[in-house]
């Protein structure tokens, strides 16, 4: 699945760009942002730069300056095929590192280097080496939400959009799937013939949802469609109507056009979908990712003005990490 969306890469008058986000950015606040939007558009042209934005970025980024918007898989695919000289990753650090691994000769920038991820922080390369000693011969499938050093110790990467297909592609009876325990358990439920060993890493955003949240939403909004991200605990996924990556949730909404939807995921997902699907009503419970929210229009502008913060990956990690990412990209999901 490749659900990347080309957003504001085209040249539109600023008033038309504001019209897209008018429900999120009131007219009184727009002048403060319009200068950044205009400057970013000009800098992108001057620097032959592209802005890749994750679906959890705020609407005023996704719908004003992003050239490509997508899930982790789509951003990795776009990073692999772009001919821009500069890639600005409006997302978190592991996404920018993945773009650098795929483009070692390009300038890859992250507007705030402190935009991390609780999953990436949950495991080190030494942990993976230790797992390999404990489970010799068992292939290691590593979620892209990890450092380059961890990817370099792995056989293949996966995202939430291709995790099942990646595990199946190995043809193994036993697989280590790290570091997201819940994603691994959710894939295990779909692949009962394969033993999936995991790690106790969690997404700090999705681990907070409970099955009770979903039951309460169904009571409050009878007939509501519930979509959940597979980083949620299995008890939450079991109560949902559908679980999938951010791109898969978007595809579900756009194909089925449910009247009312609860998105059990990061808040911006529903905000961005509501702009593209004004006929669908979105009710939230949702949780904010503090890392994603570190990225702002002002920081994207500074990033392009000063070519900071440049993401680097040590030379000795590039080849092994790229092998694991490229092997993933070759799997049809
Ligand atoms: P996807 O967009 O790949 O579903 O990932 C969700 C996420 O949490 C990324 O940090
Ligand atoms: Fe990491 Fe979760 Fe934030 Fe995604 S939403 S960046 S998995 S902490």
TrEMBL record:
Cofactor note: Binds 1 [4Fe-4S] cluster per subunit.
Signal peptide start and end residues: none
GO biological process: 'de novo' NAD+ biosynthetic process from L-aspartate
Binding residues for [4Fe-4S] cluster: 117, 203, 289
Family matches, as Gene3D superfamilies: NadA-like
MF GO annotations: 4 iron, 4 sulfur cluster binding; metal ion binding; quinolinate synthetase A activity
InterPro entries per record: NadA, NadA_sf, Quinolinate_synth_type2
Biological pathway: Cofactor biosynthesis; NAD(+) biosynthesis; quinolinate from iminoaspartate: step 1/1
Protein name per UniProt: Quinolinate synthase
Organism: Methylobacterium nonmethylotrophicum
């Amino acid at each position: 699945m490749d659900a990347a969306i080309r957003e504001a890469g085209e040249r539109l008058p600023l008033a038309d760009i504001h019209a897209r986000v008018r429900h999120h950015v009131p007219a009184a606040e727009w002048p403060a942002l319009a200068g950044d939007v205009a400057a970013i558009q000009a800098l992108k042209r001057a620097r032959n730069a592209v802005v890749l934005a994750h679906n959890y970025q705020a609407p005023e980024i996704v719908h004003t300056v992003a050239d490509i918007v997508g899930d982790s898989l789509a951003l990795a695919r776009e990073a692999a095929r772009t001919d821009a000289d500069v890639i600005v990753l409006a997302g978190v650090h592991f996404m920018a590192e993945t773009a650098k691994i795929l483009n070692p000769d390009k300038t890859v920038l992250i507007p705030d280097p402190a935009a991390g991820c609780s999953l990436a922080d949950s495991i080190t390369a030494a942990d993976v080496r230790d797992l390999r000693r404990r489970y010799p011969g068992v292939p290691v499938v590593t979620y892209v939400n990890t450092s380059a050093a961890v990817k370099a110790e792995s056989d293949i990467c996966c995202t939430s959009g291709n995790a099942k297909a990646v595990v199946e592609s190995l043809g193994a009876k036993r697989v280590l799937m790290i570091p997201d325990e819940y994603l691994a358990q959710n894939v295990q439920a779909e692949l009962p013939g394969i033993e999936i060993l995991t790690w106790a890493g969690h997404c700090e955003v999705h681990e907070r949802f409970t099955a009770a949240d979903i039951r309460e939403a169904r009571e409050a909004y009878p007939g509501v469609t519930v979509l959940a991200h597979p980083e949620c605990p299995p008890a939450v996924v079991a109560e949902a109507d559908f679980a999938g990556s951010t791109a898969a949730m978007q595809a579900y909404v756009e194909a089925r056009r449910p009247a009312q939807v609860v998105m059990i995921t990061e808040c911006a997902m529903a905000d961005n979908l509501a702009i593209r699907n004004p006929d669908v009503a979105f009710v939230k419970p949702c949780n904010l990712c503090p890392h994603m929210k570190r990225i702002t229009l002002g920081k994207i502008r500074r990033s392009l003005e000063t070519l900071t913060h440049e993401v680097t990956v040590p030379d000795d990690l590039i080849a092994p990490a790229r092998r694991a990412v490229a092997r993933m990209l070759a799997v049809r999901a």
